[in-house]
Amino acid sequence: MSDDTTGTADTTDSAARATIGVTGLAVMGRNLARNIARHGHVTAVHNRSVEKMQSLVDEFGDEGDFVACESLEDFVAAIEKPRAIIVMVKAGEATDAVIDDLVPLLDEDDIIVDAGNAHFDDTRRREEALAEKKLHFVGCGVSGGEEGALNGPSIMPGGSEHAYERLGPIFEDIAAEVDGSPCCTHVGPDAAGHFVKMVHNGIEYADMQLIAEAYDLLRRRLEMTPKDIAGVFEEWNGGDLESFLIEMTADVLAQDDPGTDTPFVDVVLDQAEQKGTGRWTVQSALDLGVPVTGIAEATFARSLSGHAGQRKAAREAFADVSVSSDAVDDRDAYVDDVRKALYASKVVAYAQGFDQIAAGSREHDWDVDPGGIARIWRGGCIIRARFLDRITEAYAEDAGLVSLLVNPYFAGVVSDGVQAWRRIVADAALHGIPTPAFASSLSFFDGLRAERLPAALIQGLRDNFGAHTYQRVDREGTYHLLWAGDRTEERQDD
Asked: Is omega for the bond preceding 82 within 30 degrees of 0, making it cis?
């Protein structure tokens, strides 16, 4: 730790002494700074509130070598050139404000890293603006929450090769590690890092919704207690479904409320919050023309949960709607069906997410390696799961894989579970239990494998009411039928 105990960097003794700097010391920034310092990198720390910076140094100064800086000027001066500065503040205007304050203090080839959850379009805008000033801007996804930030996250930096040469050794040092490999890679240029982190969060939305639907089915159809269901998830976590979120689900369901001794899950309001990344994922998928149905339904399910007034009115209006009330004959078989449906639906969610990453990479010329992304998601991040090893292997076998669903392993998983999946979705519909993510994932699967879709009728309707034209199965070209005339066909591209 620096000998300076006042919280102000001594620009004589400590100038250009730090390897890297972190400004913005809320929980994530503080833990990331501690992680960096713990790994032997001298870390300059700064916060608009000097007290927050000083408390970090006072509480954790023995963990590594911190250079405490009260002013932004001293903070910049404390970092070796080319400077690398991590910004950990609220996305949006707050990030822009910090960048505006930093830029006049920086030199050519210095690097600003936004390690928050910024929209990738904002990252592209910022990178272009800073490139004009001969500065490097890196949008960097960091997954793992506050625990991961401290003990090893999954790190997804974009930006220039120059920036990664400077940042890579530090980021790879502090990232989670699986099989001796750091969960960090240079995702690609421009905003590739923040785009991939956005899709990661979209998959996370789908994963949590699927888990919630599985819980709801077990509770409502089998009348299992939360603790009983926790045991089921613990068992599932010992098999192919092993993942951080399955493990956390068992933990949450086993917890009692300290104040009432009732199940914790029963005292929590059933209105799920969201910070926007799921919505961004769906909006981007629409722009790219990629069907991410599981992610979309998971996002809409959170929105629906928040419409308490509408839900109350609907309960009253449809109180007499009848649904099947028959009991489950074979409880063990039902639990296993839910497991298989959950696994198959999760495969669809990840397949759709990787489809979106591939489409975004093509659109923006990022050259993102999907196998590399699967590899760094195996540890540290919220969606880390055993089957990410399988995804890594799938892309190693075929880098141009058109869909994860057609990889032999995943095709086998889905084929093995599809009848259970159908039984669960049908049973849920008959008993009035909403399963939007299960059902939409099954419909996507059936649509993907269908020899012919009813989109032919949609094309006919569009041509009828709007002369939008159509194409034929038997010859090339674009055509329009004269619906209001003699109904002859005209070729439109002659």
From this structure: yes
Report strand pairing: 478-481 vs 470-471: antiparallel
CA 392 to chain centre: 17
Q: What sign results for the dihedral spanned by CA atoms 281, 283, 285, 287?
A: negative
CA distances from 338 to 215, 386, 430 (A): 9, 19, 16
Pairing of strands 43-46, 84-87: unpaired
Among candidates 442, 452, 375, which has minimal Cα distance to 414? 442
CA angle, 8 then 10 then 16, to 5°: 115
- Contact in structure between 357 and 199 (CB atoms under 8 Å): yes
Query: Dihedrals φ, ψ of 477, to 5°?
Result: 115, 170
Give me the DSSP letters along 407-448: SHHHHHHHHHHHHHHHHHHHHHHHTT---HHHHHHHHHHHHH
Pull the structure tokens for residue 357.
């990453």
Please report the DSSP string for 82-111 in residue order: SPEEEE-S-TTHHHHHHHHHHGGG--TT-E
pTM of the shown model: 0.93
Distance (Å) of CA 230 to CA 419, 434, 463: 25, 21, 54
| Residues with catalytic function | 197, 204
> Who's near 144: CB < 8 A, 6+ residues apart?
152, 153, 154, 176, 380, 381, 382
- Per-residue model confidence as pLDDT tens digits over 356-368: 999 999 999 999 9
Q: In what order do the strands lie in the sheet with 489-491?
A: 470-471, 478-481, 489-491
| Non-local CB neighbours of 91 within 8 Å, separated by 6+ positions | 116, 117, 118, 119, 122
* Beta bridge partners of residue 217, listed in sequence order: none
Q: What is the largest CA-CA distance in the chain?
A: 91
Which distant-in-sequence residues (6+ apart) come within 8 Å of 56 by Cβ?
Answer: 25, 30, 33, 34, 45, 47, 66
16 SS3 class: coil
Task: Indicate the SS3 state at residue 360.
Answer: helix
**15: helix, coil or strand?**
coil
- For the segment 380-404, what is each residue's pLDDT rounded down to a tens digit? 999 999 999 999 999 999 989 999 9
